Amino acid sequence: VQLQAFGGGLVQPGGSLRLSCATSGFTLDEYDIGWFRQAPGKGREGVSCISSSGGTTYHADSVKGRFTISKGNAKNTLDLQMNDLKPEDTGIYYCMSTVEGTPYFGQGTLVTVSS
Description:
By secondary structure, this protein is mostly beta strands. 0% of the residues lie in helices and 53% in strands.
């Protein structure tokens, strides 16, 4: 099982970024999957997740209304559209899925929101 997040970068407050996660070694449509982030000096926190069917999504209160999680157009990919970014959104973003009872975190991508 492998997950690789990409699409991070430096963006000004109020800007947008779209993160993607490429997965392999499992069938994405069979497992729930989500995004976590870790801000500098803080613990990892859940941001958004989507059910295996794609029919149910969850967003943390801190990002609700600004972030949207979705299955990607490419097979076995996951996206996170982030709008109206704030400095407190700065951190390393990871995609994560629990496959056959084992949690897998992919390599993260750094998002920096700063003027």
